[in-house]
Amino acid sequence: MVENKHLIEAFWRQYLATLPAGETLPSMTSAWSFGDSPRLANELVGLVLAGLKTATCGALWEYEAEGEPVQQVGQLSVVLDGAGRPMCVVETAEVEIRPYNQVDAQFASEEGEGDRSLAHWREAHRRFFTRTLPLIGREFSEDMLLVCERFRVIYPELH
């Protein structure tokens, strides 16, 4: 996403310009996209912008392999589309680490994908992790730890 760094910074400045004068300006924690392909990134950010997706998860192993810290409540991130273009700013509202097999129907629904059922969530995420974890030398398991994050879009405002 280095080639889009200037777009991300400009988008962040646009967001900062919407804040009240005199307010302490927040820092951007990161810029990222959902999924493992441009198609999936576009699909999922579309769900966010439609107000359907307010949660996401990733394997804790992926954070460790990439040396990335787990998001903290209150951190702000720019979410990118499949081409690396900034689409929105989200604020992390909740972070919980839990095993894959303990993700509940409420969280699955908040992920906003498919029919929003737990059954769909389990199948889609099993396929995703079966595809991506071997890239870091891991394999999917029912008790693998996930970083489960709830977030809210703070820019642009969704209507």
| Computed CA radius of gyration, to the nearest angstrom | 16 Å
The CATH class turns out to be Alpha Beta
Superfamily at the CATH H level?
Sulfate adenylyltransferase
Supply the number of structural domains: 1
Instruction: Specify the number of helices.
Output: 5
Strand content: 25-35%
The termini sit apart by 29 Å
Tell me, rounded to a whole number, the average pLDDT: 95
Structural class: alpha+beta
Largest β-sheet summary: 5 strands, mixed
Order of helices and strands: HEHEHEEHHE
CATH-level-2 architecture: Roll
Question: Would you kindly provide a written description of the structure presented here, covering whatever features stand out?
Answer:
The protein is of the alpha+beta class and 159 residues long. It has one domain (2-15, 27-155): Sulfate adenylyltransferase. It is built from five helices and five strands, in the order αβαβαββααβ. It has helices spanning 5-17, 38-49, 60-66, 105-111, 118-132, and strands at 28-32, 55-59, 76-80, 86-99, 145-155. Strands 1-3-4-5-2 form a five-stranded mixed β-sheet. The longest helix is centred in the C-terminal third of the chain and has 15 residues, at 118-132. The two termini are 29 Å apart.
Brief overview, please?
With 159 residues, the chain is of the alpha+beta class. It is built from 5 helices and 5 strands; from the N terminus they run αβαβαββααβ.
Record keyword descriptors for this entry.
25% strand, 34% helix, alpha+beta, 159 residues, 5 strands, Sulfate adenylyltransferase, globular, 5 helices, 5-stranded mixed sheet
